[in-house]
Amino acid sequence: MQFQAPALRDRWIPLGIGIAVALILALGVHALLSLSAATRRLEAGEAARATLGEARAAIGRRLETALAVPETLAAFIAVQQRIDLPTFNAVAERLIAANPSIRNVALAPDNVITAIYPVRGNEAVQGLRYAEVPEQYEAVLRAARSRRTVVAGPLPLVQGGTGLLSRTPVFVAADDGQTQRYWGIVSLAVDTDRLFEDIDTIGRKNGFDIAVRRGGDAGDVFAGSAAVFAQAPVTLAYPLPGGEEWQLGAAPPGGWQARGGWPLALWLFAYLLAAVSGWVVYRGIASHG
């Protein structure tokens, strides 16, 4: 019995060292993979922010080009004090020829639409009195009070479908020649599908799904998939002229784990490798004992 204790001790010491080596390696591997996964997720977040910046710029270019149409017409009316129908049609045709996202542009002196281009497909808008359409009239009043273009929407259109609507106020010289009086509104309707058609391409190119919703967390999603906002997306605000705001969101297809984490197989292989290393250490010490 005197000789069994050292033998037992000699047997357990190599095993303990092997287990310790395996645990240390496993903890090291866990820390390394966790750190690298966190770094990958951070990089994915930065990539998502850059993608949203690119998407916002693309939307901005299309929107600014479209808004140049009512701004130009408003400036023309302010200078000329009036505009006749043939002149309006000629100017509107030239201005929107290179803007496929524009559905129509209309003149609304005293907030009543008297001219629209193109007429085809927009017949229902002729003679529209904004005061009788509450969901649109509020933006008209804001534009008149602020003397600035107000963009709202997407909103239901009287002629059917939905669109982004802009209201550009027009002020002309009053009879006294010293002050200005409110003439009315130059209205613009923009096809939102055309306005946002670039964001899918930008998202796919960078490996993200992009969606746009109205306002903050409770806003309805009108471009892209609502599922994006259920995946803790990176978000970016897009303020509109007149005070409204959109929120752009981006998330990887399949969630952030798919973009920033390591697959389960890699974790299992790393732990197995740590266990095998511990076993090799144990066998090496035991064989020399």
Largest sheet: 5 strands, antiparallel
Quote the average pLDDT: 82
What quaternary form is this? single chain
Amino- and carboxy-terminal Cα gap: 20 Å
Radius of gyration: 33 Å
Which descriptor suits the 3D outline?
rod-shaped
- Helical segment count: 7
Care to describe what's here?
With 289 residues, the chain is an alpha+beta fold. It has helices spanning 4-80, 85-96, 134-146, 192-195, 197-206, 256-260, 264-288; strands at 102-109, 115-117, 150-156, 162-173, 180-190, 209-214, 221-223, 234-239, 245-251. The strands form two sheets. It has a five-stranded antiparallel β-sheet with strand order 2-1-5-4-3, with helices on both faces. It has a four-stranded antiparallel β-sheet with strand order 7-6-9-8. β4 (162-173) and β5 (180-190) form a beta hairpin. The longest helix is centred in the N-terminal third of the chain and has 77 residues, at 4-80. The protein is rod-shaped, with a radius of gyration of 33 Å. The model has no long low-confidence stretch (mean pLDDT 82).
